[in-house]
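Honest question from a wet-lab person: if I give you the sequences of every part of a complex, can you actually get the arrangement of the whole thing, not just the pieces? Trying it with mine:
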Amino acid sequence: MLNYIMRRLNLLLFTLLMLSLLAYCIDVTLVNPRADGLVGGYFRFLARLLEGDLGFSSSSNQPVAELIRLHLPATVELCLAALLLAMLMGITLGTLAALNQGRWVDRIILGLSLLGYSMPAYWLGMLLIMTLSMDLGWLPSSGQLSLLYEVKPVTGFTLMDTWLSHSPYREAAFRDALAHLLLPAVVLAIVPTTEVIRLVRGAMINVLKQNYIKAAFSRGLSAPRVMFKHGLRNALPPIVPMLSLQFGSLVTAAVITEVVFSWPGMGRWLVNSIQARDYAAIEGGVLVIACFLVVVNLLSESLTTLLYPAKRKDLYGQED
Amino acid sequence: MPLLDIRNLTIEIDTPQGRVKAVDRVSLTLNEGEIRGLVGESGSGKSLVAKAILGMKKDNWRITADRMRMDGHDLLSLTQAQRRRIMTRDIAMIFQEPNSCLDPSVPVGEQLIDAIPWRVFDGKWWQVFHWRKRHAIALLHRVGVKDHKEVMNAYPHELSVGVCQKVMIAMAIAIKPRLLVADEPISAMEATTQAQLLKLLDKMNKVGNTTILLISSDLSAIGNLADSFSVMYCGQMVETGSREQVLTQPHHPYTDALLDAIPDFSGRLAHKSYLNPLPGSIPPLQHLPIGCRLGPRCPYAQKQCVKTPPLLQNKGHHYSCHFPLNLEESRK
Amino acid sequence: MARKIKVYPEIKVPSALGQTWAAYRQDSLAMLGLWGLLFLLATLCFGPMMVSFDPLKQDPNALLLPPSWTQQGTIEYFFGTDDLGRDLLSRLVHGARLTFGYALVATLVALLCGCLLGLIGGMSRGLLASTLHHVLDPLLSIPSLLLAIVLVALLGPGLPNVTLAITLALIPQITRATYNAVRQELGKEYVTAARLDGSPPYRILRWAVLPNILDTLVAQTTRALSMAILDISTVSFLGIGAQAPAPEWGNMLAGGLELIYVASWNVTLPGLAIMLSVVITNLVGDGLRNALQKGMD
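Yes, you can. This is the full assembly:
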């Protein structure tokens, strides 16, 4: 186990090093060209990064690190909500499709997921805003919280802040925040949901072919019992690391969703920075997002390895 | 009344090349307490028969039979719930490759405990606590696993094939079945393990009066265990009879060939002499010969063999051949 | 009745390619996709010659004309016009060249480079493979669109730059997939057998590896193509790709955003075009992959 952890940490270090090199490339070419040698400049750049100094944004004249701290929670909140939605819908629909493989339920689910995957997320967002918020007026179309409520940011996560606030309209504010979150989260969840459906369906079909499922059926267990006891339990672990890869596409989609829904997160800020040619902000934003993704990947992989011993054996067998 | 009574079971499978008759009018009658060996080459439809008995059919199968009864219940017209009830009470099955039949993500002990139904509980009420675990350990001891602690906590991939099959048998014993269907339970195992497992099955039959349908492709391996044999070839039943009848006086050329294929090591085999295999290979299911399916490979085939031979009977010994061997007055 | 009687029971085995095609034809959805793809390619090549308007020509007399199937629409402007009186149909047809065409170019170039790198990395051992592995991992941890956005930020906006950026962003994924497929294939027993027989690496590559990673390559190609279409339109939508008058689909969507209440067809139609082209790509890809798998069995 120790060996495994060391190897992962080693890889992490290397990955972060590569990322810093990439950021340095941007830094040297665009932000502040250096005359004092590339190698020495790189080490100074690294030292600056380690101190948490990401430079100054040229458009707002604020430190980039501070701006990121301001925008990151909104993005994380949106992504987590979408991930939760995607997991719930994806696992349910994927299992359903696998159980009815080849029948019309399966076909409908597959067709829908193909459509969902093919739709540009921003277009879907625009259509939903057009119908649900404008024509029907059910859900708010932009922002995180109605301007009526004034909530002091504590954690940066609006849902938590409204819940923790002491204003008399706490519950109304919370409900409002939830309503604001719903539409962007659904739009953001579409693509990962289709991916989860695909993965779960594939894994499930694979598991259903296994002998132990047949043996369980031959013991006279009912179909739902076999599914929960033996099916999902074996189908889900292998796809957990792949799900964490989804986080990458989720963050990408979040950039666009935030623009469409005027969600005050990292993505919108990043796009604004690009349009304003604010290179220090771009550099810092990308670096933080990439690091975040790398760490998420590492955590999910380690978790899988810890939780599922059969997988651990596989890993050893593969690498050694 | 026989425990299992199958008459003219036919299984057709829809394949991309059209519908294929994988099992053709097979009849099988098992009496209570019998061990029946079902023998045939791989692909002869033995496993399909077993799956039909357990109702594990796929969507592209069509199963028809004149009669298919287990202890008075018609197996073909059961609802899902009724079938499950019968399967949890009366029928158990063990498979080949036992490692793959145990859930890899659950410790073996937990799976064994899960397989124990509450209806076999016969202690006092205060013994209910931990009863299933104790019972599971007792079952493991009964199938000859001594270090129950280690096996109970192990995952299937950590155990050997033999031990896994023993656990599978323990699961089967747990429900006290009346019929055990064993689908090639000892294939690809070491000889000593095979012997142990067969002994276990024999014990199960003697002690629990369990009827066993033992499916195997190796006539010699189960020769000492089964009371009677049914031999299948290409989806047809070619011969059925008691152990003596089939092993010493086979009427059907295919059975004869199977027996001949067992190398005789008692010393009569000359150095570097040829063994006696049947010429040719099993025809693919899409292109079965008409009439007797053994026809093109049969050393005794005659013109008449293009007609399907009827199932004939002689002193409880069934065979389907126009020109049976080892009969005093050979029919014309 | 003259009937051909087969005397010998033979199973006729058609060639792998024939089997693949036969299996593909069985799949009606995939065939639909294929026709759609052909239509799209035809639009790409000949479409601009067929439409009656210049995509940039502004008609001050026909501002915000709705599509022809509504009450106020005219058949002249079949899909209606935008706020500057430009014909939507000709813009969409010309846009096929910009969105789908550039995506196709990006995919093909990325496929070529990625496959080459993946094959080299997969067939080699030691330092080269390990270097590839370690360089790709960090690149893969950055989502392709984000990478494309960064590259556009570096290179400056414009469609050629976007295409270049997307190509560069696609290469790591294709390389990784090819690398993994090659590695998996090399680990199989029959490759070991071939190696023990003394086959040189080239032979193993040609006869053992390439035919068997074909389905991975097809899957990657369609995946890359649909990603490229989506990414190009997205980057343009964000205003850092194709610039304003160009009839790129994502660009048109961005332009339609302000008109969403007065002229919703300016939003729905370009979006539909993007979606349909991605659906078609995926249908063909899925069908091809299934057919290849069936053809191999």
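Two things worth pointing out. Residues 6 and 28 of chain B are 5 Å apart (CA to CA). Chain B is about 30% helix and 20% strand.
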